[in-house]
Amino acid sequence: MQRIGDGPAVRRLLIAAAVVLAALFLLLPLVAIFAQAFARGFDVFWVNVTNQYTVAAIQLTLLIAVLTIPVCLVFGVALAWLVTRFRFPGRRILQTLIDIPFAVSPVVAGLVYLLLYGRTGWLGAWLDGHDIQLMFAWPGILLVTIFVTCPFVARELIPLMQAQGSREEEAAVTLGAPGWTIFRRITLPNIRWALLYGVILTNARAVGEFGAVSVVSGAIRGQTNTLPLHLEQLYQDYNTVGAFASASLLALIALLTLVAKASLEWRAARREVHS
Amino acid sequence: MSIRLHDIGKHFGRTQALEPISLDIAEGELVGLLGPSGSGKTTLLRIIAGLESADPAAGARILFGERDVTQLHVRDRRIGFVFQHYALFRHMTVFDNVAFGLTVMPRKSRPSSGEIRSRVHRLLEMVKLEHMAQRYPSQLSGGQQQRVSLARALALRPDVLLLDEPFGALDAKVRQELRRWLRHLHDELNFTSLFVTHDQEEALELSDRVVVMSNGRIEQIDTPDELYRRPVNRFVFEFLGDVNHLEGSVRNGVLTCGDARLAVDLADGSEELLLRPHEVELAEAPTNEAHLPVTVTAISPVGAEVRVELEADWLGEPWLAAISHASYERLGLSRGARLYALPHRWHRFPTECSERKARASEAVS
Question: In the 3-class helix/strand/coil scheme, how is B289-328 assigned residue by residue?
Answer without folding.
Answer: CEECEEEEEEEECCCCCEEEEEECCCCCCCEEEEECHHHH
